[in-house]
Design goal:
- The chain is built from seven helices and 21 strands.
- It has 414 residues and is an alpha+beta fold.
- The strands form four sheets. Strands 2-3-1-4-5-6 form a six-stranded mixed beta sheet, with helices on both faces.
Amino acid sequence: MDLLRINTAGSVDDGKSTLIGRFLNDSHALTIEQEELIVRKTKEKGLDDLDFSVITDGLIAEREQGITIDVAHIYFSSTTRKFIIADSPGHVEYTRNMVTGASNSEVSIILVDARKGLQEQTHRHYFISNLLRLKAVVFCINKMDLVNYSEDVFLKIATDINKMTGDFEYKPEIFILPVSSLKGDNIVNSSLNMPWYSGATLSGVLHGIKPRNTENNIFRMDVQQVMHVQNKEFKDYRSYSGRIISGAIAVGDIVTALPSGLTSRVAEIRKFTATPAQVVEGESVQLRLENDIDISRGMMLVKEQNENLLQKNIRSTLVWMDEKQALPGGKYLLQAGCRTALCKLEAIHALIPPENPKELKDAASLHLNDIATVALKTASPVFLDAFEDNRNNGAFILIDLQTNNTVAVGFAKA
């Protein structure tokens, strides 16, 4: 059973939490305790319709304000697929949370209020979904019950969405659905109120999206620890443990250690007591090599050496996530996987307004939620691929050296 990671986003009060609650309820994925919570909270608020938003709005501050202010994760399964849903906040000032929620996702669900149409946050959330190279984006035109299930309203917003998405070079799969998360129209069950719509429900779309093809991904493995064992069962045993970032590796393959460039052949792959012939990305393994070459934590194993991996000058798109502004010349710790290096913000090339990404702006500094193209220089290589070539090995974070706060997330460019 495969796993689909989903992020939900939209402007404030577009109904994201309600949509997730409705999806879980109509999919029969709620516990008895959750069902009782929905009924109790609905009565306390004096509402006519069940308040499904309480399923994801778990924080006290959220319930008091009636909004979602952090990323809430929901885990559930249907008979054919596992899901992890990250419910992101809608406020402009919480764009960093949306980046966090979408960073590990394959699909983004962006809600649009049928009464309001596309908002600034719609553009911002689609820009981030596109920046993160998500496989699919599902636009749910929500609250159709409040516009009398009008086909004309839906078609107008769908036209605006197609115009917005057409301006981007990268093209994820795009789905546009008319829904009412409050009433349950086209969430799991097809709507009887919109006979003019014959497409799939949200559940049908999410079950139909195929997992991303990883067969042709280039092999990358972080070395997290060198295992040296000396006992009766393992004499002079040395292996290199870590997580396979991307691609696959098999016994007999030749690997290169970066940055040294030394090579050796894989003699054995071990996963606890198992010794598989091949392993793929996402698996944590030990590799034993024919030759004991010099390898330590923070190095990387690859199949084919690429000179770009050894670059210290990194061009990237940066999402600034800290309240303290960033200035050229600022020094940070860059981290990608278990690899770290001191780095300097060499230059801010341009600020990217998500609502109109073609109109780049000059900027002397970066502020909270700013998105910009920048130049970084590291003290040592961190072996990054261009994000568009290898999503699993093209992202990194910047850490403030004084506060240890994560201040930015970046995406390496070719």
